[in-house]
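User: Let's play a game. I give you a shape written as tokens, and you guess the letters that built it. Ready? Here's round one.
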């Protein structure tokens, strides 16, 4: 087990930030797949407090990435309904005894389940994504160094470690090991081709990161915000919102999303094969990260290790499904581009 553990100090955090005295016991709520989120009520209000994953915060670039993400969220909030973290004492990221936190004002609402998403939701989010893409972030003076582009990954090394540990995903990884090599090469080639064509965006606008209240969406969880190719993110986000409860793509929802996006962004132009090849990058990166969590290479505790294991299996299925769906998706996007 890793020596790096969560060190939750909510009382000290609330005292330091003058958020009031805590009422009751902080309640852990859904906070994504990387960090831990808690609902905390005090004498001055209610807050959503995100305890940042201590393993991730060990990375040299992590702090600056979070700082940049919150700056991006604050600019986006001028054009769309977005929720940046509370800024106190000159910062949005707060450290108490080595544990880092983001604190948010509590907002009413909930994320939608796949079976609840309809045409209206898809078209609305498509338009919001385009608004994010068209926002001006130039005053942030951020520079894209392309360090997050996927590199050649030693998938067989992870497979060997999994076999040694009798990991439950070994069979699944073995079945796609050759495909992983091919997808990694394709992703690298597309990354080079698209290197100079990036904008700043949310980069994780799936249904769990949108809170709805009376059909009004609030965009949350900006921690992944940064540089992204606009068309890659558009396709990726359209897929998130177009899946039904069984995980299959709904063409009508997909087209509605693209329609909403085009209503703000305008005409779409791209080499769609390159765009779809690039879509492997995030999925491959997520697979490798969860292999590390599952194998205790980068993990805080047993709960995270189990989450990593589940995510390895889920991501393998997602990669297979994405690869199989590309020809049909390409037809859909070409149809929508002509409309």
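Assistant: Ready! My guess for every position:
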């Amino acid at each position: 087990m890793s020596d790096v553990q969560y060190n939750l100090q909510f009382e000290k955090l609330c005292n330091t930030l003058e958020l009031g005295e805590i009422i009751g016991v902080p309640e852990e709520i859904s906070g994504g797949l990387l960090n831990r989120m808690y609902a905390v009520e005090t004498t001055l209000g209610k807050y959503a407090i995100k305890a940042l994953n201590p393993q991730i915060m060990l990375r040299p670039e992590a702090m600056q990435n979070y700082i940049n993400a919150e700056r991006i969220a604050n600019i986006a909030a001028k054009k769309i309904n977005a929720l940046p973290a509370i800024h106190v004492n000159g910062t949005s990221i707060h450290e108490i005894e080595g544990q880092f936190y983001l604190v948010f004002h509590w907002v009413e609402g909930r994320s939608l389940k796949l079976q609840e998403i309809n045409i209206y939701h898809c078209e609305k989010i498509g338009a919001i994504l385009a608004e994010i893409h068209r926002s001006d972030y130039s005053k942030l003076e951020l520079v894209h160094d392309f360090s997050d582009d996927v590199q050649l990954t030693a998938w067989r090394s992870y497979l060997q470690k999994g076999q040694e540990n009798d990991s439950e995903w070994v069979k699944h990884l073995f079945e796609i090991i050759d495909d992983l090599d091919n997808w990694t090469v394709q992703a690298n080639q597309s990354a080079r081709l698209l290197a100079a064509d990036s904008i700043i965006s949310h980069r994780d606008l799936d249904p769990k990161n949108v809170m709805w209240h009376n059909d009004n969406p609030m965009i949350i969880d900006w921690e992944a915000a940064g540089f992204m190719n606009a068309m890659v993110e558009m396709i990726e986000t359209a897929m998130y919102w177009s899946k039904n409860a069984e995980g299959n793509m709904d063409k009508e929802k997909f087209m509605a999303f693209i329609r909403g996006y085009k209503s703000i962004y305008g005409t779409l132009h791209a080499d769609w094969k390159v765009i779809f090849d690039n879509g492997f990058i995030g999925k491959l990166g997520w697979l490798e990260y969860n292999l590390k969590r599952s194998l205790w290479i980068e993990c805080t505790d047993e709960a995270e290790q189990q989450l990593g294991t589940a995510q390895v299996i889920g991501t393998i299925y997602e990669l297979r499904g994405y690869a199989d769906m590309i020809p049909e998706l390409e037809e859909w996007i070409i149809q929508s581009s002509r409309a």
